[in-house]
Design brief:
Blueprint (H helix, E strand, L loop, with lengths): L1 E2 L2 E2 L7 E6 L9 E9 L6 E5 L6 E5 L5 E3 L6 E5 L4 E7 L3 H5 L11 E3 H5 L1 H12 L3 H16 L7 H10 L7 H7 L4 H11 L4 H22 L6 H11 L4 H12 L3 H12 L6 H8 L14
Antiparallel strand pairs: 1-2, 3-4, 4-9, 5-8, 6-7, 6-9, 7-10
Helix pairs in contact: 3-4, 8-9, 8-12
């Protein structure tokens, strides 16, 4: 349940992930607000973050918030039993508007939020630590970004349109994309790197894989596992030349093969993860699913 961007405390499980839309004031900057928990007494949870085309603001409740820049490869971390983590996934292009520096400076790095946003980030971490529940902790992190967004100019409309055209299912011609947007190739690449962090080719690769992941996890939610035939079909549907192409890209972006990666996703997300906010736009409005996945499976 969500009210005004608040992530409600999820039902009991060994570990779980919930995401919801942000408050209205942040809708142009933030794609989703999420809570992840590993309950006391459970085993430590190892999860693999993969490129999503955007940066995240993350706070392990009880610790200082930090910024995870746009990824070009996997990031693996361990959550200990009793951990609660809250965060915001920014929209592609929002990093350049909110972080006070070109987004390219944050690619594949993790930065203490206080180094970027000063004492406001410290106070947000303190409020998250004092929160009565994970939903309130997530609200404290949202409030930090709302303060930054109030003075920001917003995501460049050209970037918003470019991302829309690069979404799965549109199979864009990258060579003509910038000309159709009325800019030179050099200017467009520079714009992408300063606002999103990566160039258009890398962004396209990332969004295509996110589309594959959305379709794969929808299939898993329907009880269809990653068989060879299923992977070949998903590869074609996601816009890959063939299954070998998908495998190369999956290893590049996740560090493992599609079968291994989807096996991890099936084991973790089958216990009650909810990523509909991230994946519904990639699947279309007619698709609703209960178990899904994201860059944080």
């Amino acid at each position: 349940m969500i009210r005004s961007g608040r992530v409600a405390d999820p039902p009991p499980a060994v570990q779980f992930f919930r995401e919801r839309p942000p408050v209205t004031a942040l809708a142009g900057f933030v794609a989703s607000v999420w809570v992840q928990r590993v309950l006391p007494g459970a085993a430590a949870y190892v999860h693999r973050s993969v490129p999503s085309g955007s940066a995240e603001l993350v706070c392990r409740v009880g610790s200082a918030p930090y910024i995870v820049g746009p990824l070009t490869g996997p990031r693996v971390e361990t959550l200990e039993p009793g951990s609660t983590v809250v965060g915001l996934r920014l929209r592609p292009g929002a990093a350049g508007a909110l972080l006070g520096a070109p987004a390219s400076e944050f690619v594949d790095v993790t930065v203490d939020a206080a180094a970027v946003w000063g004492s406001a980030a410290v106070r947000a971490g303190e409020r998250a630590a004092e929160a009565a529940d994970p939903g309130d902790a997530a609200a404290a992190v949202q409030e930090l970004v709302r303060g930054r967004a109030a003075g920001a100019t917003g995501v460049d409309p050209l970037v918003v349109e470019a991302v829309r055209r690069l979404l799965p299912g549109r199979t864009p011609d990258l060579r003509s994309l910038w000309s159709s947007l009325g800019v030179s190739e050099r200017s467009f690449r520079r714009l992408c790197r300063s606002t999103i962090g990566v160039g258009p080719k890398t962004l396209h690769r990332t969004l295509r894989f996110q589309g594959f992941l959305a379709q794969a996890q929808y299939a898993l939610a329907q009880g269809r596992g990653p068989t060879e035939e299923g992977l070949a079909r998903l590869a074609a549907d996601a816009g890959y030349a063939d299954q070998a192409h998908l495998t190369r890209e999956c290893v590049r972006l996740t560090g493992v093969t599609p079968r291994v990666f989807l096996g991890e996703v099936e084991r973790s997300c089958g216990c009650g993860h909810d990523h509909e906010v991230s994946f519904a736009p990639l699947l279309g409005p007619a698709v609703l699913f209960k178990n899904g996945g994201s860059g944080r499976p």
